[in-house]
Design the sequence.
């Protein structure tokens, strides 16, 4: 397994992918339009070249979404975002899994 998989080849593939999918997927789901600058691995690759190069595992994100919500989700298992109703928006949030919310 290569020690550095973020090579020139990756930079070229990243550029091509973002040219074809220029908008942040998370922002789009929120009804916002934001330019994607990061190719995120939906399932963290952990250095696995097969998963790293699997384009079906890529998504376009803006830096804010990638460095915020996505990293939070990977570290703690859910996103802490709160909706306009005052409740967590992530179905995986512990609050949404308790009987307090009626779920």
Sequence:
């Amino acid at each position: 397994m290569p020690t550095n998989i973020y090579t020139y080849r990756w930079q070229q593939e990243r550029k091509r992918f973002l040219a074809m999918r220029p908008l942040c997927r998370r922002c789009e789901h929120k009804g916002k339009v934001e330019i994607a600058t990061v190719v995120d691995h939906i399932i963290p690759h952990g250095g696995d070249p097969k998963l790293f190069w699997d384009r079906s595992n890529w998504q376009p994100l803006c830096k804010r979404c990638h460095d915020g919500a996505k990293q939070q989700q990977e570290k703690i298992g859910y996103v802490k975002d709160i909706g306009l109703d005052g409740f967590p928006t992530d179905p995986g949030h512990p609050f949404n899994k308790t009987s307090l919310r009626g779920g």
Notes: The helical segments are 8-20, 25-29, 49-53, 63-76. Residues 44 and 83 are 26 Å apart (CA to CA). Residues 8-101 form one domain.
